[in-house]
Amino acid sequence: EEPAELSFRAGQFLSIRCPADGKDERRAYTLSSPPEESGELELLVKLAPAGVGSDFFRRLAPGDAIPFTGPMGFFVCDPVHAGDVVLGATGSGIAAALPMIRALTKRPLEDEGGKVQLFWGLRREADVFWRGRLEAIAERSPRFSYQICLSGPGPGWTGARGRITEHVLAAVPLLRAPVLYLVGNGDMIRELKQVLVQRGLDRKKQIRTEDYQDYIRSSLR
Length: 221
Known about the structure:
- By secondary structure, the chain is α/β, with parallel strands linked by helices.
- Residues 215-221 have low confidence and may be disordered.
- The protein is globular and about 55 Å long.
- Helix content is 29%, strand content 24%.
């Protein structure tokens, strides 16, 4: 409603005001919509059994206003990449990864022509969503490929198995001057970052991170 359009970069988030028990609680939600559609915003909301943010969204009805501040955050794409790009996401971390992938694959090939690879970690087949969106990008851009990695798949799953850590580590040596964007589970981020640095990647120049667990901890303080 105000402003009529919102300027933001792929990967940024909003701080949603979620009133609860008379307190002005806030929770962070990444903008999963592309920045060029600035007049309409999309958020990916995981409804937990209990939680301030989950309860707030459950109470909403069509037409209700959602007060927020932002956009904010520094987990955004570099202006240009000399080589390839890897995005490692777990769970709802795809909310940041997807608009970043869209932005990267729309860049002119003469400016940036490296590979863009996504490794997305989930637990079960039932947890998979937005696959059609990923397929649409892959069909449009030959630069982009993705793997959905399940840590607890059923016997019929034919895709990648296990945590994304092993798959990312196997892919990196085959890439050219890669920059990695890691988002979601903090344990995944810390483990991958440690091993990547041990293998010679530059922590400041080649690794970008967004720990969703930090959002939870900071909002509970």
